[in-house]
Design a protein that fits this description.
Chain B: One of its GO terms (molecular function) is antiporter activity. The complex is a heterodimer of chains A (113) and B (970). Chain A is an all-alpha fold and 113 residues long. Chain A has a single domain, classed as Helix Hairpins (Orthogonal Bundle). In chain A, 64% of the residues lie in helices and 0% in strands. Chain A contains three helices and no strands. In chain A, α1 runs antiparallel to α2 and α2 runs antiparallel to α3. Chain A is elongated. Chain B is an all-alpha fold and 970 residues long. Chain B has a domain of 220 residues. Chain B has 39 helices and four strands. Chain B has a two-stranded antiparallel sheet with strand order 1-2. The longest helix of chain B is centred in the C-terminal third of the chain and has 43 residues. Chain B starts with a helix and ends with a helix. Classes of the chains: A mainly alpha (113), B mainly alpha (970).
């Protein structure tokens, strides 16, 4: 499981980075989305992977961190997902505005010579 | 009042006055001048009061702890030397304030002038009464700063701006050197305290760091006191209003370097290094300044070069290293301040009353302003060293010291000749000042008709000239005791035998004075014809221009080098920058691993499930596909990214993170809708500009990018795998798991962390979301689509054409028919999704859900309406007001946080209780729930705002295309 997840994270990150380096704004926005998946999974995996672990407490029983899913990376990633959405929205609008003003969707605001 | 606190009051008073003056109305000339003058007078009176304390052996001290662990305290210290300087600063400050009241024109913003002047006065007092060297440097730099502001006071004039900039750059760079030098002293002594430094003379002189410390401190002193080769800023500073020249650039600020050299004289002087650095610099400055002063055409220029020359004289005296020379230096500092301040004021009066300072145009003024002429003549005679005046006495002390033997070197032996030569020059330029301006034929063609100035404008000069006379005639009764106190604080107990008197008998110095006087008169008459010809600048050394080198250095550093660096290192293109950043990220991840045996962890890990492998194989295919398609097939890429997102969702569920899966799924939906809305505004895909085969450079670039991408992917895969297979010990998680229910009252630990334990972080996060949404809104309000995107999309045009062709159909019918059933369902879904949102919100504290998820869910309910019915229909039927949602949400969250203050707890402390409601059952009632409500409202508002702001753009475009079509029909 760990191996599969690690490879997945690596491929997501590589695809995202490749797109970040491309000249068209749309490629960059897609790349950012892929990279944020990879980073979110990466942070999440810091809590180690546990299958079928209870994510919530049962009142009345002793709370055992060894059994429960690690909540800290989850809380971090939850925040990251929402912020990622805000970032995507902002970037999208910036790229649309830039495209409207410069007439091109190149990341530099003008076509390469 | 105790002497210590009085010292603090004396220091703070000018700064307080500066603040008050800064807020006075622009025309409050009298108020500001009265304020500045009375602060000077009060400061002087305090100093008179403090004199008895200072005259005792011990200096007056006042200390406040600031950073005691670093040996930095706020310390004030007043001894004889600082008393003398402080009295000069306060006393002349008061006189200059009175003078400036009449000098400054009512059209200028005079209160600002006095504000700067007072602030300068405070900074200068800070320099002389600092008991800590670091603190001294701080005030030192402040004086540079206020000198800059005062020189540039008439900022509409270019010479003033340039002079101000030059003075600031030179004196502040010197200040930086001084700072480092002081650091070195602190390192040698182990303290910055002035008393301790003064007690460590042998330690400093024998230290290995003595040379660098000496060099750096002298750089500071030489730049400030306009010593060769840094002297050129002072003549340029003459663009300042004359009160400033009189106060800063003759009496006080330029003496700061002298003060520092006197202050550190007991611990740094007396070595060969000191002698061979300070004496040549002082001598060069003395001769060069005096020589250049003869040939100035500007009245203030003459005085500026004369000031440079006198500063050189004092530096030279300090360089000699003998106690008697130090006595002469201190005495001459005082005398020079008195006569030069009065001369500057006289020059200012001439400028004020005639409208020019050019000596080629001025002559015969004595008949128009006899009083001023007399006063200026006395002061100039003092400058020339004529007997019965104070300048004579200290100059004779200087001659005596020049004759005396110090090191026996050639330089030392030749000093009497150089000194006499400088004396000749000073007599010549003083004569030029007097004879050229006040005597000769009446002036012709002056801008104004000259006359005596107002009574009180002359008063400061009268007072200063009176001092010149009394000190010159009866020095022992007037300044004798004050001087003795100052000298004792520098030299200590072994006071040398000196006599302050007018007449010492027929001695060699007297002969030198006599030679200088006769030689000066002869030289003046010899040069007269040349001077009358009106040539600008001194002969022989005309080409020696410090400011030319300065300008060249400045241009090289701030323009040429900057340009070169920009050309080599800078790029305006994003891709190379990204490439560098990402390559650096790979390197930063790999470098720490070099040299270590790095392996993956030892844990066996969970058994591989085939289904999981299949899911991730799909995910990987989606990611690679998206990367491949994003350029030409945007829609396909969007679908594929959605696929990758879904794989992430599934993984979260699989690995026991239902909260994440839920949020990820919802955000996925919203993001996809958002990007779909954006797609419409992007240009049609362009064919590959390179044709079938791209050029080699492009291939190389792609190859590099591919390598970086694979490298980063590999690093992340390796890191996550190595970490996942190592044991996990998180004390942080343990705390949250164990306390979530008992402290936060919720069983959903993730939610409790977000709204309770780390509520402040969440607060920051929703603020970010809020700002992002507002920025999107703001950007879209001024959105201008590209011209080729304004027309309706092709599909819409085909549908509309079909509707137009059929007589029974109205435009848009096809679309309506097409979505008939889905639209009905989607309309009905609104309450369903709304209820789901409320449900997710309510259970959030105990089960997966919460404010974020609920907020996005509700916003999806709105978006679905837009998709089903079109923007116009929704905007006609539904008023969402997302800005209010956001505002209310933020207010609720903040108010919840503030609420805990009323109960005496820190911000955002939460309280919880379980309540039992009929039908619904037991529900948690926590203040965190209220906070989560704020989060919920804000997320709804922000998400809806972003989406509908973008959706609204389609209306705008159809409107504009309609109008353009209407034009076509017309």
């Amino acid at each position: 499981m760990e191996m599969m997840l690690a490879i997945g994270i690596g491929v997501f990150a590589a695809s995202g980075v490749w797109l970040l380096l491309r000249p068209r704004t749309y490629q960059v926005i897609i790349g950012l989305a892929l990279l944020s998946y990879a980073v979110n999974m990466f942070i999440f995996s810091m809590g180690r992977i546990k299958m079928d672990a209870p994510p919530v407490l049962t009142p009345g029983t002793a709370a055992d961190p060894a059994v429960l899913a690690d909540p800290v990376p989850q809380a971090l990633v939850l925040t990251a997902i929402v912020i990622g959405f805000a970032m995507t929205a902002l970037f999208l609008v910036v790229l649309l505005a830039a495209r409207g003003r410069t007439g091109t969707d190149h990341v530099d605001g003008r076509e390469a010579e | 009042m105790q002497p210590g606190p009085l010292l603090l009051v004396m220091l703070l008073l000018p700064f307080a006055g500066s603040l008050v003056a800064g807020f006075l109305p622009t025309n409050a000339r009298n108020t500001a001048a009265t304020l500045a003058g009375s602060i000077g007078v009060v400061g002087s009176l305090m100093l008179v009061w403090l004199y008895l304390d200072v005259a005792d052996e011990e200096p007056v001290r006042f200390a406040l702890d600031w950073l005691p662990t670093l040996g930095l305290d706020f310390t004030l210290r007043l001894d004889g030397l600082s008393w003398l300087f402080a009295t000069l600063i306060s006393g002349i400050g008061a006189l200059v304030a009175l003078y400036a009241r009449y000098y400054m024109s009512p059209e200028d913003p005079v209160p600002r002038f006095f504000s700067f002047l007072l602030a300068f006065q405070g900074s200068m007092l800070g320099v002389v009464i600092s008991g800590n060297l670091v603190q001294l440097v701080f005030f030192w730099e402040l004086t540079s700063l206020f000198s800059f502001l005062l020189i540039g006071y008439w900022h509409h004039s270019a010479p003033a701006r340039e002079g101000a900039r030059m003075a600031l750059i030179i004196t502040a760079s010197g200040g930086l050197c001084l700072f480092v030098g002081v650091m070195l002293i602190g390192r040698i002594v182990g303290s910055y305290d002035v008393d301790e430094v003064l007690n460590s003379g042998n330690l400093i002189r024998n230290s290995d760091l003595y040379m660098p410390a000496l060099a750096l401190i002298l750089l500071g002193a030489f730049t400030k006191s306009a010593q060769f080769p840094f002297h050129f800023w002072l003549p340029h500073a003459m663009s300042a209003p004359t009160p400033v020249s009189s106060y800063l650039h003759s009496a006080t600020m330029v003496k700061a370097g002298i003060f520092l050299m006197i202050r550190l004289w007991p611990v740094m002087a007396g070595t060969d290094e000191w002698f061979y650095v300070v004496v040549p610099v002082g001598l060069t400055t003395l001769l060069l300044g005096a020589f250049a002063a003869i040939f100035q055409q500007d009245l203030k220029g003459l005085l500026a070069y004369s000031t440079i020359s006198h500063l050189g004289l004092i530096t030279l005296l300090l360089g000699l290293g003998s106690p008697l020379a130090a006595v002469a230096a201190i005495f001459h500092t005082l005398n020079h301040a008195i006569f030069k301040a009065s001369l500057f004021m006289a020059a200012g009066i001439i400028d004020h009353e005639t409208g020019t300072r050019d000596m080629r145009r001025l002559s015969g003024l004595a008949r128009y302003m006899p009083f001023t002429a007399t006063l200026a003549m006395v002061a100039a005679a003092s400058m020339a060293g004529v007997p019965l005046l104070n300048g004579f006495i200290s100059k004779e002390m200087f001659f005596a010291e020049a004759v005396a033997n110090h090191t026996g070197s050639l330089l030392d032996d030749s000093l009497p000749y150089w000194a006499t030569l400088a004396g000749v020059f000073s007599v010549t330029y003083s004569m030029r000042f007097i004879l050229g301006v006040f005597f000769g034929p009446p002036p012709i063609d002056l801008p104004r008709r000259p006359h005596e100035p107002e009574r009180w404008m002359r008063f400061p000069i009268e007072l200063l000239v009176l001092l010149c006379l009394t000190i010159g005639i009866v020095p022992g009764f007037t300044v004798g005791p004050l001087l003795a106190t100052a000298i004792r604080s520098v030299i200590g107990t072994g006071l040398p035998a000196y006599s302050l008197a007018l007449w010492h008998g027929f001695t060699l110095p007297l002969l030198m004075s006599f030679i200088a006087l006769i030689g000066g008169i002869v030289l003046y008459y010899a040069l007269r014809r040349y001077l009358m010809s009106g040539i600008e600048g001194p002969p022989l050394i005309r080409e020696l221009k410090g400011q030319r080198i300065f300008d060249k250095v400045l241009v090289t550093i701030s323009w040429q080098w900057a340009r070169a660096a920009e050309a080599v290192l800078g790029t305006r293109r994003l891709q190379p920058q990204m490439r560098l950043v990402l390559a650096l990220a790979v390197i930063a991840a790999v470098v720490p691993l070099v040299g270590h045996v790095v392996g993956t962890g030892m844990l066996p890990g969970a058994p591989m499930e085939p289904a999981f492998v299949v899911v991730w194989a799909i995910g990987i295919a989606c990611a690679i596909g998206a990367a491949y398609q994003a350029k030409y097939h945007r829609f396909a890429a969007l679908v594929l990214v959605g696929g990758a997102g879904l794989v992430t969702c599934v993984t979260f569920i699989w690995l026991s993170a239902p909260d994440l899966a839920l949020t990820q799924l919802l955000v996925e939906i919203v993001t996809t809708v958002l990007l779909l809305l954006g797609l419409r505004w992007l240009p049609k895909r362009i064919e590959d500009v390179y044709g079938t085969r791209p050029p080699l450079s492009v291939l190389v670039r792609r190859y590099i990018d591919f390598t970086i991408a694979c490298g980063l992917g590999a690093v992340m895969a390796f890191l996550s795998y190595s970490l996942m297979t190592r044991p996990h010990a998180s004390a942080v998680s343990r705390f949250f798991v164990e306390n979530a229910y008992s402290e936060g009252g919720g069983t959903n630990i993730v939610n409790v962390i977000l709204v309770d334990f780390r509520g402040f972080d969440t607060m920051g996060e929703i603020v970010v979301l809020c700002l992002a949404a507002l920025t999107v809104f703001g950007l879209l309000r001024r959105f201008r689509p590209a011209p080729e995107s304004i027309e309706s999309p092709e599909q819409q045009r085909i549908q509309d054409a079909f509707d137009d062709a059929e007589p029974t159909r109205a435009p848009g019918d096809t679309l309506t028919d097409y979505l008939m059933i889905p639209r009905l369902i989607m309309n009905w879904l609104f309450p369903v999704i709304g209820v789901a949102a409320v449900y997710l919100f309510m259970r959030g504290h105990d089960l997966p859900g919460g404010g974020f998820a609920a907020g996005i869910t509700l916003s999806i309910a709105f978006v679905v309406q837009y998709m089903a019915n079109g923007t116009r229909w929704v905007e006609d039927h539904l008023r969402v007001l997302p800005l209010r949602w956001m505002g209310l949400g933020l207010l609720t969250a903040v108010a919840t946080g503030l609420g805990s203050w009323f109960f005496g707890y820190p911000f955002l402390t939460s309280y919880f209780q379980y309540a039992v409601l009929p039908v619904v059952g037991k529900i948690p009632v926590a203040s965190a729930l209220l906070f989560d409500l704020g989060v919920f409202a804000l997320v709804v508002g922000a998400t809806v705002l972003i989406l509908i702001a973008l959706a609204h753009q389609s209306l705008r475009s159809s409107r504009s295309s309609q109008s353009s079509e209407a034009e076509r029909w017309r």
